[in-house]
Amino acid sequence: MGSTPPRPAGGERAPRLRRVLGAAAFPALFLGLVVGMTELPEFGDPASPASTHLSPRFIEEGAAETGAANMVTAVLADYRGYDTLGEAAVIFAAGLGCLVILASGGARRDLPVAGMSNRFGSIVLDAATRTLVPVVLLFAVYVLIHGHYSPGGGFQGGVLFGSGLIMMRLVWGPADASPRPGSDVPTFGLSLRGSLVLASVGILAYVGIGLAAMAFGGEFLNYGTLPLGSDPAHVRELATLGIEAAVFLTVGGTVSLLFDTISIGMRENGVPLGSERGPRE
Amino acid sequence: MTEGHLVSIGLLAVMLISAGCALAVKDLLTAAALFGVFSFLTATWFALMGAPDVAFTEACVGGALTTILFVSTAFRTGRRFD
After folding, report:
1. How many structural domains comprise chain B?
2. Nearest CB to A156: which of B60, B68, B71?
3. Could you tell me the CA-to-CA distances from A274 to A166, A174, A255 in Å, in that order?
4. B60, A159: Cβ pair inside 8 Å?
């Protein structure tokens, strides 16, 4: 674009052409979707394929096939593992997008920040946080591990874990800052980069488990072939736990990354990452 | 009309009120808090409908996390919306 000399009329024609194409594509797509929609089964139709084939299979065979008593976990992490991979990737991409937009350059330094140790810090908040945070973090891991048997799983556990990290940041200040003078409160928690690494490891572990199933002769994310034991349901249970742990890492890392990019990252003008990027540019 | 219906109608009414108030108020911190109220009521509603997994997620994400993110964003961008 920069190499071509500017043409008086051509410079306007291309956007206009694009606009006309866009205006034509939208009704076409809309009509196509409406026509396609009429072919779908009625909402809630008991005779639809989903109700006659899929739901009974999930309900009747789910626990025996996947080893997960909680049907939601069986569907999310095993039968519909591909969907969940997409969801985890979307969450990760959203975190990356926030990081790129908010923590890179142009941040204002004159605004107050939500890492409020100097604004809201008090002995009550401090004591409450010391008591609550370990419970929250432990409960997050419990929710992750117990997702097979009760409501919960990697996603909820990850959000709880990230919330515990955020709670520490809200009361004690950012993890990257030096300790408050005269305070014995240690700065604790993940740095911005640590959150990013955690989320990336989660996504990679998810894909890795799927690829491992392929390497042992199965399909992507079809865990039955993994060499984890002789009982297929037990193998699937273990692999599902691995998937949930991967989602846990992704969501926990992204949650704390989101908070960091909004508070610390913007204040520091992207220092945790920008300090490396600066000299290279 | 059973007792369950009355509870549902009450819940949905308070949800509507909190959502409308969140849109109407000019103070963004108040709006974030009202949105948190709305999320917790939604989670309760999901639990009543027999979907504890979804209720759990809604309580974590909507009630806690989103509210925190809104509050920290309000701190960055200014508290009032005019």
Report:
1. 1
2. B60
3. 22, 17, 20
4. yes
Token pair belonging to B73: 């964003």
In chain A, residues with a C-beta closer than 8 Å to the C-beta of B73 are 262
Domain ranges of chain A: 71-271
Is B82 part of a structural domain of the chain? no
Q: Are A179 and A187 in contact (CB under 8 A)?
A: yes
Please state, in angstroms and rounded to a whole number, the distance separating the CA atoms of residues A81 and A279: 42
Q: Which residue of B has its CA nearest to A267?
A: B76
Counted across chains A and B, CB pairs separated by less than 8 A come out at: 53
Q: How many C-beta atoms lie closer than 10 Å to residue B67's C-beta? A: 20
Q: Residue A264: CB partners within 8 Å, gap ≥ 6?
A: A113, A115, A169, A174, A175, A176, A192, A272
Rounded CA separation A259/A81 (Å): 28
Q: Contact A159/B65, CB-based, under 8 Å?
A: yes
Q: Are the C-beta atoms of A167 and A120 separated by less than 8 Å?
A: no
Q: Which residues of A touch B64 (CB under 8 A)?
A: 159, 163
Token pair for A113 = 């920040």
| d(C-alpha A130, C-alpha A124), whole Å | 10
For B56-78, the pLDDT digits (tens) are 999 999 988 999 888 888 877 77
Closest-CA distance of chain A to residue B7, Å: 23
Min distance A15 CA to chain B CA atoms (Å): 33
ipTM attached to this prediction: 0.86
CA distances from A203 to A36, A91, A125, A216, A241 (A): 34, 10, 34, 20, 14
| pTM greater than the 0.90 cutoff | no
CA distance A125 to A66: 44
Give the pLDDT confidence of A194-250 residue by residue, as tens digits. 888 999 999 999 999 999 999 988 888 888 888 888 888 888 889 999 999 999 999
- Give the domain extent around B18: 3-77
Per-residue pLDDT 10s for chain B (82 aa) are 677 788 889 999 999 999 999 999 988 889 999 999 999 999 999 998 889 999 999 999 998 899 988 888 887 777 776 6
Indicate the length of chain A as a whole number.
Answer: 281
